[in-house]
């Protein structure tokens, strides 16, 4: 599992935003999809979940939603990471928009970083 944590950190560093978030989706310990968040992009799927979560203005493409969009097969586990400018881990617990998307895809396990520099697990 540590390779997926490491990969999520690298993906987060590639984000174009000030809040750098990366997400890696795996199935049976095999990489399925990955993506950073994009502040200069949106997508109809992101907009749909933002409306459903009653946050219609939050349409920049979140890393979790982008990872789900890019997936060509089912994902069973997500690894979500946020890093600051120094590369330190920050809180990346999926927001209500992303939680809706994750639940709709039937993903039950999500690991995310905390401000303490650790990983937590969210089971949906």
Structure commentary:
This protein has a single domain (2-123), classed as Cytidine Deaminase, domain 2 (3-Layer(aba) Sandwich), CATH 3.40.140. Helices cover 31% and strands 27% of the residues. The chain contains four helices and six strands. The chain has helices at residues 2-13, 44-52, 63-70, 96-104; strands at 20-27, 30-36, 77-83, 89-90, 109-113, 119-123. The mean pLDDT is 95.
What structural category arises from helix and sheet content? alpha+beta
Would you count the extended β strands for me? 6
Distance between the termini: 19 Å
CATH architecture: 3-Layer(aba) Sandwich
CATH superfamily: Cytidine Deaminase, domain 2
The stretches of 5 or more residues where confidence is low (pLDDT under 50) are: none
Helix share bin: 25-40%
Write the layout of secondary structure elements.
Blueprint: H1 2-13, E1 20-27, E2 30-36, H2 44-52, H3 63-70, E3 77-83, E4 89-90, H4 96-104, E5 109-113, E6 119-123
Parallel strand pairs: 3-5
Antiparallel strand pairs: 1-2, 1-3, 3-4, 5-6
Describe what is shown at a glance.
It is built from 4 helices and 6 strands; from the N terminus they run αββααββαββ.
Q: Any descriptors?
A:
single chain, 124 residues, Cytidine Deaminase, domain 2, 31% helix
């Amino acid at each position: 599992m540590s390779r997926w944590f490491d990969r999520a950190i690298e993906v987060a560093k590639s984000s174009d935003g000030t809040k750098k978030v990366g997400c890696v989706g795996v199935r049976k310990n095999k990489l399925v999809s990955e993506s950073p968040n994009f502040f200069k992009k949106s997508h109809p799927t992101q907009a749909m979940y933002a409306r459903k979560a009653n946050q219609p203005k939050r349409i920049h493409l979140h890393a979790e939603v982008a990872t789900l969009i890019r997936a060509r097969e089912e994902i069973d586990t997500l690894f979500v990471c946020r890093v600051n400018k120094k590369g330190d881990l920050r809180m990346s617990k999926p927001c209500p928009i992303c939680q809706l998307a994750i639940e709709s895809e039937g993903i039950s396990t999500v690991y995310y970083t905390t401000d303490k520099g650790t990983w937590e697990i969210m089971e949906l």
